[in-house]
Structures are given as C-alpha cells and as structure tokens.
Amino acid sequence: MPRPIHATIHTEALRHNLGHARAAATDARVWAVVKANAYGHGIAHAFEGLRAADGFALLDLDEAQALRDLGWRGPILLLEGVFEQRDLELCSRLDLWHTVHCEQQIDMLSQHKTNVAQRVFLKMNSGMNRLGFAPHSYRSAWTRLSALPQVDEISLMAHFSDADGPKGIAQQMQVFQHFTQDLPGERSLSNSAAILRHCAAAEVRADWVRAGIALYGSAPDFPQHSAADWNLHPAMTLSTKIIGTQDLVAGDSVGYGSSFVAENPMTIGIAACGYADGYPRLCPTGTPILVDGLRTRTLGRVSMDMIGVDLTPLQLAGSPAGVGSEVTLWGRAAKGAVLAIDEVAHAAGTIGYELMCALTARVPVNAD
Questions:
Q1: Is 241 tagged catalytic?
Q2: What CATH superfamily is the domain 236-367?
Q3: Catalytic option among 123, 241, 256, 279
Q4: When you count CB atoms within 10 A of the terminal residue's CB, does the N or C end of the chain come out lower?
C-alpha cells in the first residue's frame, strides 16, 4: 500500500472563503486568484469550490487552458500579461484578458494581427516597485493603448504593498486616485489583505477585487490576525499516520544532529512526512502538530521522509497513540480540530503561502 500521507482539498471551505471575500468587498466583482496551480491546491481540485467567482486570475497560459478545459467560460485575467508576441494569439483564441505593465507589451499589442479587440488591465506602480508604469507615465501609456484598434476596454489596476501591515494603503490610494481621477475604465485594487482590512472604506471600493490567500484559509496578516479571526476555513489538510514509536529514557536524542534530548522517560511517534513532501525542514522542535486531533509538538530535525512527534500530551489525556494514529500536519483533523497552516509556517520562519505552494508531487491530493 502507498505511504499514508495525503492532502485533502475542502470544496466547501473554498466556497465559504469565497463567499466571505465577496461579502467583505461589498459590491465589487471577485477574481479568484489561482496562480501557482491554485496556491498548490491544484486548479482541477479547487475549481468546483471557486466556480461562483466572477473571474479567475492567474499567470500561466497552460493554467488558463486548464480552466477552459474544465468548462469555465467567464473572464480569465493574466496577472503578468504576455511574455512574448505569440502569447497574444492564445489570448485571442482563449478569450483572455491580460495585464499591461510595460511599454514592450504595448509594442506587442500594436503588432498583433487580430479581428477581435482585447480587454486589458493597465497596471500602475503605485509604490510596490515590482511591475507597472510609474504614476507620471501612466496617462501616456493609457493614451497609447486607447489608440490601438487591437484594444477594446482598458481597466485600471494597482497592487498594495502594505495592506497587511501598519503602513496601510493610504499613500498608494492617494497616488492611484490622483493619476487616474479622470480616466475612464473599471478599477481593480484590493488583494486579500485589503479586502479583509480596508474594503469597508468607501475610497477603497472598486469594480474588481483579487482574492488570493484568503480563499485558501490563510490569514494575510498573521500573526496579527488568525484565519479564525477572519472566519476563514482551511482549504487544505495535510495528514499522515504514525508509522512507528520509540520509548526514550532521559538522555536519549531524536533525529539527525541530536538536536532534541529527552529530559525524562517518554514515548515518541514517527510520522510519515518530511521535507521531500513539502513539510519545512526549518520547523524546529515545538512546531505544533495534531495526533488523533489532540495538539502536541514535533521533536528534533525534520528528515526527508519522517518527523518525530511527542506523544506525552495524548498519554496525559488518557488517549495514548500508536502506530496507525492520525497525524494532521495542518488543516482539519478527522475529529474536527483545526491546526492553522499559518502556525506551522510561523514556526518555520515563513508564511502559509509558501507551505501551500511547496507541497510536492509525491503527495497524493484529492478533493472532498
């Protein structure tokens, strides 16, 4: 039989989180962001839970093709636009909307031979300093685009760099509003953090919002807020089983480098999961984990295929665990207890986004 590790994608959680984002964004239409193979959940697995979105936003043409193959006929937005001239042919064939963030992309459009004008989202660099036209160049880019017969409607877009932190969005909002105040076109501004934290303010409201990490049940501003604080449900559960146990005496160590040494006699479990499955090697002793739905901790270094687990809390609770016991690395245990992916990521010094996207190909995935 295969190793017991597997990931489950929760369709109902995706529906719930999408509905929550829609409610927070008032009257805006919602892009469900499914880049990076739906943040590691798998587009095919996530689609059913997200199909109530107004559109899907992503990066890769093959992911756009996958959505069309699944039967989606609504809007699809390429968040980074096209990378070469021939990409525009597929945009025409698949009816894709795409971002324009540099002069070279306008050059490509001006040379594109098509009978059907395309919908584009003109991106402003309002302070993120990744992609987009500088504010003082934005109007000239809009003017140039609007003169092209290859372009139909132009929407206006920016991305907040600090919606999840104390700096906030006021400065970037001011820049965006100043340089777009009399330009026609729909607006798209807010990511997950801005949807949850700022969309109640009238000046932030726009025609489209881009819901990403919130759809998958992770808090964009953890640890200031948890997923539970935002009423988000985990969309992925990574689970496995105990495949062995060891009885230690004081002085015994666990794992490579003997980084954990027992101070007293104890029983540990060995869980079938490691960094080759996508579980962070940097997770130290003490990283939270669930065994049979009860909270405990990891012990020692994470190996390629295995993790040591402290079974003491289960013994103290009168629920001793052993070979075959359920281990929840993150997500929802069979008994209903939840371990937020953000807690595990925080222990590893990273964010929930990375853990989702790092799930490796050897882990079987199914949707419930």
A1: no
A2: Lyase, Ornithine Decarboxylase; Chain A, domain 1 (2.40.37.10)
A3: 256
A4: N
Cα 308 from Cα 252, distance rounded (Å) = 13
What pTM was computed for the model? 0.96
- The DSSP annotation for 94-123 comes to HT-EEEE-SHHHHHHHHH---SS-EEEEEE
| DSSP secondary structure letter of residue 70 | T
Q: Where are the domains of the chain?
A: 11-216, 236-367
H helices of 76-212, in order, are: 87-94, 103-111, 135-146, 170-180, 192-198
Query: CB within 8 A of 238, min separation 6: which ones?
Result: 5, 6, 7, 273, 277, 278, 279, 328, 329, 330, 331, 359, 363
Spatial CB neighbours of 337, under 8 Å, sequence gap ≥ 6: 290, 293, 294, 295, 328
Among 3.50.50.60, 3.20.20.10, 3.40.50.1820, 3.40.50.300, what is the CATH number of 11-216?
3.20.20.10
Residue-level pLDDT, tens digit, the chain, 368 residues? 789 999 999 999 999 999 999 999 988 999 999 999 999 999 999 999 999 999 999 999 999 999 999 999 999 999 999 999 999 999 999 999 999 999 999 999 999 998 889 999 999 999 999 999 999 999 999 999 999 999 999 999 999 999 999 999 999 999 999 999 999 999 999 999 999 999 877 677 789 999 999 999 999 999 999 999 999 999 999 999 999 999 999 999 999 999 999 999 999 999 999 999 999 999 999 999 999 999 999 999 999 999 999 999 999 999 889 999 999 999 999 999 999 999 999 999 999 999 999 999 999 999 99
